[in-house]
Amino acid sequence: MTETVMTIPGIDKVSSRSGETVLRIRNLSKQYGKRLVVDNLNLEVQRGEIFGFLGPNGAGKTTTIRMMLGLIEPIAGNVEILGKDIAKHRAEILPRVGALVETPALYLYLSGRSNLRVVGSALGGVPKSRIDAVLELVGLQHRQKDLVRTYSLGMKQRLGVAMALLQDPDVLVLDEPANGLDPAGIVEMRDLMHQLAAEGKTVFISSHLLTEVQQICTRVAIIHLGKLITESSIEELTNGRGEFAVTLERPQEALALIQAQEWGRSARLDKDGVLITPAPDSRGRELNLFLVNAGFVPDTISQATQDLEEVFLRLTGNGSGGVQ
Amino acid sequence: MSTVIATPASAEHKQLRKARPSFFGLLRAEFFKVLHQWTTWILLVLLVGVMILPYLIEITVPSIKDQIQQAPLHFFYNEMSIGLSIVRVFTGIFLLIITARMIGLEYQLGTIRVLLSRGVGRLQLLFAKLLTVVIIALVLLAAGLVLNYLLTLILVSSKAGNLTPFNALTSQFWSDTRTYILTILLNMGVTVLLATTAAVVGRSLSFGLSAALVFFPIDNVGTIIMQLAYRLTNNDFWLSLTAYFLGPNLNVMPMPLTSGRAESIGASPLYFVDEAHKAHGVLVDGTHTLVVAAVYAAIFAVTAIWLTWKREVKE
Question: What number is the ipTM of this complex?
Answer without folding.
Answer: 0.87
